Amino acid sequence: xxxxxxxxxxxxxxxxxxxxxxxxxxxxxxxxxxxxxxxxxxxxxxxxxxxxxxxxxxxxxxxxxxxxxxxxxxxxxxxxxxxxxxxxxxxxxxxxxxxxxxxxxxxxxxxxxxxxxxxxxxxxxxxxxxxxxxxxxxxxxxxxxxxxxxxxxxxxxxxxxxxxxxxxxxxxxxxxxxxxxxxxxxxxxxxxxxxxxxxxxxxxxxxxxxxxxxxxxxxxxxxxxxxxxxxxxxxxxxxxxxxxxxxxxxxxxxxxxxxxxxxxxxxxxxxxxxxxxxxxxxxxxxxxxxxxxxxxxxxxxxxxxxxxxxxxxxxxxxxxxxxxxxxxxxxxxxxxxxxxxxxxxxxxxxxxxxxxxxxxxx
Length: 362
What we know:
- With 362 residues, the chain is mainly beta.
- It has one domain (2-14, 37-361): YVTN repeat-like/Quinoprotein amine dehydrogenase (Methylamine Dehydrogenase, Chain H), CATH 2.130.10.
- It has helices at residues 2-6, 16-19, 209-212, and strands spanning 36-41, 49-56, 62-70, 84-87, 90-95, 100-107, 110-118, 126-132, 135-140, 143-148, 159-160, 168-173, 177-182, 186-191, 203-206, 218-224, 227-232, 239-242, 248-251, 263-268, 273-278, 283-289, 294-301, 305-311, 317-324, 327-335, 341-346, 350-351, 356-361.
- Strands 24, 25, 26, 27 and 28 form a five-stranded antiparallel β-sheet that branches. Strands 3-2-1-29 form a four-stranded antiparallel β-sheet, with no helix packed on it. The protein has a four-stranded antiparallel β-sheet with strand order 4-5-6-7, with no helix packed on it.
């Protein structure tokens, strides 16, 4: 299992020479119109940084690094997704080794670090965050907790994950419940109050080995309304949906299955479309679903090992972070009216970096 998880891991360290003398702690972009920005983190275990890219589609498209912002915390997470999120003018970044979440603020085309949220003392090593309305949700390696947003005040005590499990991969939030994927083979359902707070209770849904085999490693997750989509990454059924009752429908993925293909990290597209970062397949896997099942559509080549994926708020763009030949990259694809992808722009290589978490700000 340890070797399998490495194929879908997200983690890494920024080379010291890259951190020396880069860009100032805030960047000014153009003043005419609002740019589409892509935000990720270096996940450096000693000094985590947020990296901001600007998508330019005029003339020859480009994805230029505009700023590198110290979060004030330490990274070091692995095998996770959703470490960076943005909603409106506010964003959040998980600092794994510091037990904190960094707040980001955007005004015009500037993004800067605007605050720090500390986790509950019993909740450690944040790996994933989610923003929904006036709430921030955090999955630590062993817990889940909620905060009012953007104040950062805790919304009740942290919810412990079952049996001391420390394998959390991602947290995602629906209409009436939230979910945390556990790489040990389960999905934790977390009911929400009508106001969107965690109730403090949880239900564990262990994936059936009869359905998913021994490769039932849930990783990426996203919601479509109140239906959860997630990736049992190392199973031939590498996509699944779950309703609020906990009923799970398995969907076969690309063939040949693991270890050749393993859709790992998930983003929700328009209507019934889902995009998954297929790490060993070095591709983006596209699925379609209804509320009870789905089908794999096709792979779109990436040229590296995906470590997280996201779709822009306007639904026009997909961004994916990946590694190739020991370097970290951010790539952006356009999404057409049918959900198909076309490569648009890729960042310069970042030596020795495995980016962690990716989000759009528009």
